[in-house]
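--- STAGE predict ---
source: upstream dedup step, 1 unique chain passed
mode: sequence only
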Amino acid sequence: MLVRTFPKTFVGASFLLLIATTMLVACGGDGNAAASTGSSGGTGAKQGARRGAMETGTIDKYDATAKTLTVKKSDGSTATFTITNARIVKSQKISSQDLSTALGTSDIRVSVMGQQASDGTYTAQNITVSDTTAMGNGAPPAGGPKNGTPRVGGPGGGTPPAGMNGTPPANGMRRIMLQNAKVQDNQLTGTDQAGKTITVKLSDTTTIFKETTGTADDLKAGQNVSVTPAFSQNGNTSNNQEARMIIVGDIAETAQQPAN
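--- STAGE serialize ---
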């Protein structure tokens, strides 16, 4: 009886083990499929719209017919951009007296790049004043986004990049946006986006820039230029990118850093 029972028990156990193994394999397959889907979704997210790195250098050539701008970079290489939909901004150095005059007009944005002292004041490396017409509705000036609102890679906000809204980048410099700014006794005062009063000290080494609306006529060979590419759907850049914003003329040193 025992001899006869053992084979039946063994066969039954083997059958149950086979079923269990099949179920595990099926579950494992589903799990892998889910993992694969999640990975694909992650890749899709990474391939969402991104802004390419800012390119700076001098204008090598502007083709008015093809609407393309070729920029010669410091390493001797070139980058070509289509500028059909680009906003062109003209930048020029101005004096502290010109700064005071510019601040007296309406719709002016002020961006300050400088070092913060222990007392909370700043010593400006450079100051950029820009009018809203030049920068467009919501388009960030060289100093940062409109009214200091953080913007990373596209509309909708996000974590501010280094140097934006008081976040210190590697070189210790901070960038702040000021509203209702005024100049008096060689100091620039205004309020940040939180309404806090900020004092910025001007020195002999402070460089001041004014940005106004530019045109294609300003895109002349040899001119300094900074180009912000349009958003890319895959995060990759090509040899012929579409430009979103072009700043030509006197370019602030910090504006020549790669964009976030």
